[in-house]
Amino acid sequence: MDKLENLIITISRTCISFLILMMVSLWIGKQVNSGNNHYNFALSITIGSFIANMGFDTNLKFIPMLTAFLALITIYFLSSLISTHSRRFRLLLSGEPTVIMENGKILDANMKKIRYTLDDLNQQLREQGIFDVFQVEYALLEVSGKLSVMKKEKFQSLTKGDFHPTHLNSEKQLPIELIMDGMAVEKNFNSQYSSTWLNQELKLRNLQMQEIQYAVITSNGSLFIDLFEDHINAPLDRE
To answer: Does the model's pTM come out above 0.70?
Structure first.
């Protein structure tokens, strides 16, 4: 009888744990899967450990485990809420990408800081079909561990935009973020794109910095601005 009772308890715990996992996955699954950073990686492992113990380890009481699991999810929710309003907090949790190559040159000092080797660089370039490092203009190692690459212009594939006269003599550069979440990214200001220049551009457009969600100097040197209020009512935006 004890064996049958233990079997029923195990099956019940497994079913309940699976249902809880499904509900949590529907709620935060997109954030965890798309983030690909250290914070989300650690969270996904911890969630898996919790669910496994809740479902199969009958030596652990279910209710305390469930309480601890819900506390973890609550902490994640609060952290995500703070992250949406604070870029500094986001960087603290997930870090920021590291420039590996700039203007076709390998930045060995940056590579040493993150213990990233030339073998790692060459491997990730080959995975993107690049067998000659000479073809690379910029390379950034994302927080997910993936390498993002911008090829030199003569090695890039042609697009319709390349046949427009304004693109014939334009030089490619790494995009420069100037505003994020309504706040200036001061470390990215330089002699060409200064805070004074930015304020003048906003004044010409009759915009306040607090209205802007994202502003960036694109790879061809133009200023892209996206507002918090985009006034778009697309079907996918509806809840």
So the answer is: no
